[in-house]
Please model this.
Amino acid sequence: MDSEQKNPAVEIRAVSKKFGRGAEQVKALDGVTLTIGDNEFFTLLGPSGCGKTTLLRMIAGFEQPDDGGIFLFGEDIKALPPHKRPVNTVFQHYALFPHMTVAKNVAFSLEMLGRAPAEIERTIGEMLALVKMEQFAARKPAQLSGGQQQRIALARALAPRPRVLLLDEPLSALDLKLRQAMRAELKTMQQQTGITFVFVTHDQEEALTMSDRIAVMSGGRVRQTGAPRDIYEKPRDSFVANFIGESNFLTVTVEKLEQDTAWCRLDGALLQCSCAGEAAGFGEARVSIRPEQISFSAGGNGGPALSGVVEGLTYLGTDTQLSVRLGDGQRLQARVQNAGREQPPPGPGERIRLKMNPGAARLLAD
Amino acid sequence: MKKSKPLSAYPGFSQVTWLCMALLYAPILVVAVYSFNAIRSITTWGGFSLAWYAKAFANPHIQAATINSLVVAVTASAAATVIATAAALALARGRGFRGRGGVFVLINLPLMIPEIVTAVAMLIFFLAVGFQLGLLTVIIAHTVFCVPFAYLPIAARLSGIETFYEDAAQDLYADRWRSFRFVLLPMMMPGIFAGLMLAFIISLDDFIITNMVTGPGTTTLPLAIYGMVRVGFSPEINAISTIMLLVSVFFVSLSYLVGRRRT
Model:
C-alpha cells in the first residue's frame, strides 16, 4: 500500500512514436514525459493530430512506443497486451457491442475475467444504477440515444473497477446541452469512484471545467502541464495562449526581471508582466494578455499610461469587445461586461486610456 | 447544375423495359406453367395437374441425383465458407503482408475465368494426381469454385465492421481469440450466412465443371436434367426445373436479405 501511494497512477517517460516510413513518416509523439497522480482527473488537450489519442492508446496497450517507458503504479506495462492491463477505455464512438444487450455489454469484462455469476449480476445492477440506466438492461445499443449509449459505455468501462479509466473524446458525439450535463456528471463520477481519469479532448472548455490538471499537446509534444487556472492565466508559449481562450499577442521590450515578474515597455508605458523565470531574457519579447484583463477609461494623451484609438466595437451579448490601435501601431482586443456599466462604450475614433491588470500579461517563451 | 430528365420520360422507355423483361422471364414462366400440364406436351396446354411433380418425385434417378446434389452443395458450401471467412479475416484484419492486393485478385479471379477452362484444368489435375473421379472430386471442385462467391458477402460485411469493437473487447480483458469468438464472429454472422447461401446455390446449379470432374454413376440434379432432355422433352423436366428455380430464388433472396441486415 505504501508503494502505491508513492507511485503515480500513470507515468510516461520520454515516449516517442513514429508512424509511416520514409518521406511520409510522422512523429506522433516526440519525447513525451508526464506524471499522472492517483485519483486525478487528468486531461490531454490539443488539436487533432497532436498525439493525444496515440498517447491514450499507448496507455491502453493498442500502440507500442518506439522509445521510452510506460508505468502504471510503478509497474512497467510496456510488454503487457491490452487485455492484461488494469485500465479500461471509453471509446470515442462508444464501441458498444451491437449484438449484445446493455446488461451483456456491461457484464462482458467480468465474464472474460471469470467472475462468479452472482457477482456479475450484482455489478451490472450497481453500474447501471451509477449511470441511471437500470431500466434499459434488456435493450440493444441500437435502441438507445447517443447520450444513453454514452452512459452504457461508461458503465461498461467502470464495471471491472479499473485502476485508471481512459476516455477518448467521449463527449464529442453529443449535442451541446447533453455535453454540458455530462461534463458535470463525469466529474462527479470521478470524485465518487476515486478512479484516475485520463481524458482526451480537443475542446478547451471541457478541459478547463473538468480537469484537475491539463497537459496541452501539439505536434507530438507536451507544451505545458498545469491546473486549468495556470494554463489559462499563465500560458507558457503562444501555442498554449492561442489554443486556450482568446488572447492578444504584443511585442514588448523586457527592461527589468524579478523572480516571476518582468517589467516590459509597451508603446512608452511600463507593464507588469508575469513570467516563468526560465523563459525570461532581456530585449524584445512577446507577451500574451486576455481581452477581459484590459480595462479602459476615456481620455488619455500618450503619457506614461497606455492609450489607444478605438477602431471598432463588437457587441457580444454579455460583453462588448473593442478593437484598439496603440500608438506604435500594434492592435489589441479589450473586452468589457455590458452589465452594470453606466457610461456607453467609447465610439470608433475615440482615444481611450487602457489599463492592464498587474501581472495579467504573460511573458511567453517564444 | 442542370437537372437531368428522369429515364422514364424518354420515348420508348417502357416498351424497351417490357421487352427485356419478357425476354428474361417469359421462357422461365413457360417452363413453370407447363410443369402443371395434364398432358405429355410442353407446347400444348391440356389442363392443370400435379402429375408430373408426382412422377418426378418417384423417379429413382432423380432421387439419387437430388441426394448427390445436396451432399455436394452442403459439404462444398460449408468448406468454401470456412475458407472464405479465413481469407477475408486475413486480408482485412491481418497485419499488412506483402502481396495483399495480389491475393485479393487471386481470390476473385475465378469469377472471371471461363468455366470451361476451370473445368478442363480441374479434370487434368485430378487425372494427373491419380484421383478417382466421383463424388469426392465433385465436392473438391465445387469447394474451390464456391470460395469467391462465399468471399464477397463475407468481405463486404467485415469491411463494414470498425476495428474499435475488437479494441473494446481486448480492452475489456478478452484475448485475441475471445475477442474474435464473442465479438467479431457474431458481428460477421450475417455476412457468413449470406456467403454460405450463395455458395450453396452456386454449387447446386453447377453443370459444366460437375460434368467434367464427375465419375461414372455419380449424377447431380443438373446432370440428370440434361440427360433427360437428350432423351426427349416431358413436363417432368419442367417440374424438376421449377422446383430448382424456387429453391434458388429462395436461397438467393435469403442470402440477400440476411446480408443486408444490420446488427
About this structure: Chain A has two domains: 2-233, 246-340+347-363. Chain A touches chain B at residues 60-62, 81-84, 87-89, 91-93, 95-99, 108-109, 112-113, 142, 156-157, 160 (CB under 8 Å). The domain at 2-233 of chain A is CATH 3.40.50.300 (Rossmann fold). Chain A has a mean pLDDT of 89.
